[in-house]
Amino acid sequence: MLRDSLKWREKWEVDTTLPSWQAPEVLEKHFPSGSTGFDKEGSPVIIVPFVGLDVWGLLHSFTRTEVIRMILKHLENYLAIARKQALTHGPDALKVTVIFDLEGFNIRQYAWKPAAEMVFTLLKLYEANYPEILKSCFIVNAPKVFSLAFSVIKKFMHEYTISKIKIFGTDTKKWQAQVLNLIDKDQLPVHYGGTMVDENGDPRCSLIVKPGGKVPKCYYSKNTSEKQKNYNKVTIKTGEKHVLDLLCADNDSVLKWEIGVEHHEIKFQIKRRDEEGNEEVVHGPRKIAEGPMDVGVLSVTGPATYSVIFDNKNAFLKNKKIFYDILITVPTRDLNINDEPDDHNEPVAAAYE
User: Fold this and answer.
1) pLDDT per residue as tens digits for the range 52-90
2) Fewer Cβ within 10 Å of end Cβ, the chain: N or C?
3) Is the Cβ–Cβ distance between 335 and 117 less than 8 Å?
4) In Å, what is the CA distance from 139 to each residue of 14, 99, 130?
5) What is the set of domains in the chain, with CATH numbers?
6) What pTM value is reported for the model?
7) Strand 265-274 vs strand 304-311: parallel, antiparallel, or unpaired?
8) Closest by alpha carbon to 282, among 304, 260, 258, 266?
């Protein structure tokens, strides 16, 4: 593992050109992250306001290698600070403490294949080359839908990493109390339970912890364009159901969906039926209303048949029009999870247009 990691560091020039490499200004500006201080044992505290991460915009504007190199440079800088801290605080300072703020988290952009590939590539890269550097990770303001995403991505994590992650909802009293057990208030922005503000009096310390934000379309590659997705469309008559059966042949698979309703609402659930005919409900039932697309992922196992059911039986005199994109995929097989640098000069998204 050490030999492989040394070869990997050589390929990415981590110890040679990376320290002096400058990320494009727009990329640096629109990647949300920053550090406001140290935890009680002297380790760097990294804050990532996830809502400001415009994966779609970044991957339409920059190459995959540029995005990963910038993340690697940030990580190496934090580890250099940790090593310096360890000289005065001892070995406990050699790791990092991270706060991922999922306020405003939208799972839809991570259902996009290039974004999913980037996430899994970064997980592979981290586990292979930076094992056991995580002291503690607080995922705060997590919406309910995040549990579906986490059930998928944790399969790519080592048990050690998973054991260091604590997930909290939007109850600030609960997660701030846990954060303050490890970090003093004068090392945290007011927004996260501390006492810090930046020069502008911002409780989020946005001058220190970059908020990221939408990448302006003027930076998008000329070879990428936003194409309208072709969804399956169906009209479900009053008192009827529409059932979509999907065969799952492999373990470690993922069922992904994007569903829209033109008017009113539709009842939605997913059932699993194994080879012996045993059936169970694995998601729902719940209602999907007109408005934004309902996007989700579900960890599934085979061999089994998963039935996605749209139920209009309780509606009177109202046909329902829905449109959807639903499939079962195996991330390790169907995604390009490659942690080596490439020589492509076009943004990641260009290959998918």
Assistant:
1) 999 888 988 988 889 999 999 999 999 999 999 999 999
2) N
3) yes
4) 28, 6, 19
5) 1-219 (3.40.525.10), 232-331 (2.60.120.680)
6) 0.77
7) antiparallel
8) 304
